[in-house]
Amino acid sequence: MTLVYVDNVHKAFGDLKVLKGINLSVAQGEVVAIIGRSGSGKSTLLRCLNQLEKHDSGQITIADKQLDAASMSPKELSENVGMVFQSFNLFPHKTVGENVCLAPLVVRGEEKAEVEKVAREVLEKVGLSDKYGAYPAQLSGGQQQRVAIARALAMRPKVMLCDEVTSALDPELVGEVLRVLEALAAEGMTLILVTHEMSFARDVADRVVFMHQGRIHEEGAPSELFSNPQTPELKQFISAVL
Amino acid sequence: MGPTLDFLTLLPYVSELLKGFTTTVILTVVTTLTGLSLAVAVAYLRVNAQPWVRWGLGGYVEVTRNTPFIVQLFFIFFGLPGLGIKIDAITAAFIAMTLNLAAYSAEILRAGISATAKGQLEAGRALGMTTLQSYRHVVLVPAFARVYPALISQSIIVMLGSAVVSQISVFDLTYAANFIQSRNFRSFEVYLLITLVYLLLAFGMRRSFMLVGKRVFAYQQGEQR
Amino acid sequence: MIEFTFWDILRNLLLATRWTIVLSLIAFVGGATVGLLLTFMRLSSNRWLQRLTSLYVDLFQGTPLLMQLFLIFFGAAAMGHPISAWLAASIALTLFTSAFLCDIWRGCLEAVAKGQWHASRVLGMNYFQTMRHVILPQALRLSIPPTVGFSVQVIKGTALASIIGFVELTKAGTMLNNATFEPFTIFALVALLYFALCYPLSCYARYLEKKLYDAGLR
Ligand SMILES: Nc1ncnc2c1ncn2[C@@H]1O[C@H](COP(=O)(O)OP(=O)(O)OP(=O)(O)O)[C@@H](O)[C@H]1O
Ligand SMILES: [Mg+2]
């Protein structure tokens, strides 16, 4: 079943055309890794998927509902699409527990007791149940990013977007975050992630999408794509990063 | 009159001093609260409201920052009754101080918000919060924390500037000083003492602000890992 | 009673504005001179000189300008040497300005990165060479926007001279008000004139600040 469907999406910043007709469909439970050079439009595509950027033309459908202001409210959007940022963007003045509970409380208006239960569950899932009362400043980068993942999970989204979620981390902290994502994938969560971790893309992704100059240049199963790139651009990219 | 100092001549005026002190403290506490609250609203609206509201508020901020407080006070106290709006001196002082603090603090806060907002707003939006919800729950406190020292200084500047409200006969510390020196003719002693009181007030204000800040912004200290 | 037309009022206010400008200039030039001296005292290696200057700065920043004015004006009289409102205002505003400028400039000197000192030391420059060729030029660039910005506070500060009877813009306003009973018009005009003096300086300071920022220095 197709969960995310992107049809001929364009996006420009002023004169700069960043997305030049993106077509992509992601099935329920699929893990899609987006790779590509800096500036190729990976983040922009991801941000269009949860409307942090409004696309100029084309259609995006998530769970059979069209993604635009008229047909999907921010609340509804957030229940479909979760996002984890490169720079964590945790709320510094709120404890880990409060970070996780805030949106279910104020956006969905759920019961406090129920929300706290969910919060403990998702924190358990990312291996941080003992940090419920800690402030972000008291956590390592890897722990902060795991809280951010838990925070997104607490809204029970259908698909999670991850934009280079390990790029701001010290090398020794990358593993713990990737393992959490791997576990999520194994549970059947639909993931779309922009990543520079090629080995992670190869091991965990069902499909790898190579973006180049605002277009999807090549895509396919990771084993296929990495071992047998078709286009010179991808060949060059792979030889540069591996 | 010789150049000797004689503070004993101030003793009979303790009740005037207390009255002036109380007025200055109350004016300061109240206007700090109202001024900073108003500043939050102004800072928010200057970013998020309709263009004409932003424009109007920009005008208010610039006029306030580029004219002397005493002129603002005179305009409110003497000028507004000319339009049929009658207010007493203490109300005029309260309004002038609030508007003055709010204009400066709104600018300070706006800087704090623009330095904080992007990541926090995006995280809030990705979680389905409206702009107002994001401001309320996740932007305001970190923005406040970021510019807190500047807000302390500004509140103190407004407290010190409030000496001018004596000129519309509000019985504040300065008014008390003027009153006493007109009776005992020891102007230097009186003003020296009152200056010292202001200095202590400024010091006390900074300390209390910092104590409050330490509690409210405690989340910034990293310990446990 | 003499009748005042709108133009009479405006003309009188404009004439008084001259004194606001003159007083501002005196305060600013005087304050900058004293402030520069204080900044160097602050930078000296003598502990007591450092303490003395920060005490000076704290005292002037922690007390009302009005009290400083009163202390000088009435203090001089009480000591048996009465001085004019004009002189008292000049002295008070000069001292007030110097304290704030000293604080601003010290901040700018400290804002020049520590690495610059180290780099100069490694290149074999001594304290004065480093100061003259490396630190001061950078600090100077940093200091111009806030200094221009503070000139607005000086102009606004001169309004307090009206309280000890010096006839500048604000005093002229209150005097005209007593003669005409048109407070709304008069104080609106007074505010407008201050705004005309201050706003361009504020804008210029902001422009300079932005230029520094764009140059990556802030
Ligand atoms: N808000 C914006 N305003 C203007 N230009 C933008 C904006 N966001 C992105 N761009 C530009 O769009 C282009 C694509 O940016 P994008 O962030 O999507 O690239 P990316 O593939 O994610 O690169 P990276 O690997 O460096 O994160 C870049 O040239 C960037 O400068
Ligand atoms: Mg990116």
TrEMBL record, chain A:
GO terms for molecular function: ABC-type amino acid transporter activity; ATP binding; ATP hydrolysis activity. Its main location: membrane. GO terms for cellular component: plasma membrane. SMART domains: AAA. Pfam families: ABC_tran. Keywords: Amino-acid transport, ATP-binding, Cell membrane, Membrane, Nucleotide-binding, Transport. It is a peripheral membrane protein. It is found in: Cell inner membrane. Residues 4-238 form the ABC transporter domain. It comes from the Bacteria. Belongs to the ABC transporter superfamily. This is Amino acid ABC transporter ATP-binding protein. It comes from Vreelandella glaciei. The lineage of its organism: Bacteria, Pseudomonadati, Pseudomonadota, Gammaproteobacteria, Oceanospirillales.
Automatic annotation (TrEMBL), chain B:
It is found in: Cell inner membrane; Cell membrane. Signal peptide: none annotated. It comes from the Bacteria. CDD domains: TM_PBP2 (cd06261). The chain crosses the membrane at residues 20-45, 188-205. The keyword Transmembrane helix applies. GO terms for biological process: amino acid transport. It holds the Pfam family BPD_transp_1. Residues 21-209 form the ABC transmembrane type-1 domain. The keyword Cell membrane applies. GO terms for molecular function: transmembrane transporter activity. InterPro entries: AA_ABC_transptr_permease_3TM, ArtM/GltK/GlnP/TcyL/YhdX-like, MetI-like, MetI-like_sf. One of its GO terms (cellular component) is ATP-binding cassette (ABC) transporter complex. Belongs to the binding-protein-dependent transport system permease family. HisMQ subfamily. This is Amino acid ABC transporter permease. It comes from Vreelandella glaciei.
From TrEMBL, chain C:
GO terms for molecular function: transmembrane transporter activity. GO terms for biological process: amino acid transport. It is found in: Cell inner membrane; Cell membrane. Residues 17-205 form the ABC transmembrane type-1 domain. Gene3D superfamilies: MetI-like. It is a multi-pass membrane protein. The chain crosses the membrane at residues 20-43, 55-77, 83-105, 148-166, 186-208. InterPro entries: AA_ABC_transptr_permease_3TM, ArtM/GltK/GlnP/TcyL/YhdX-like, MetI-like, MetI-like_sf. SUPFAM superfamilies: MetI-like. GO terms for cellular component: ATP-binding cassette (ABC) transporter complex. Keywords: Amino-acid transport, Cell membrane, Membrane, Transmembrane, Transmembrane helix, Transport. PANTHER family: BLR6398 PROTEIN, MEMBRANE COMPONENT OF AMINO ACID ABC TRANSPORTER. Belongs to the binding-protein-dependent transport system permease family. HisMQ subfamily. This is Amino acid ABC transporter permease. It comes from Vreelandella sedimenti.
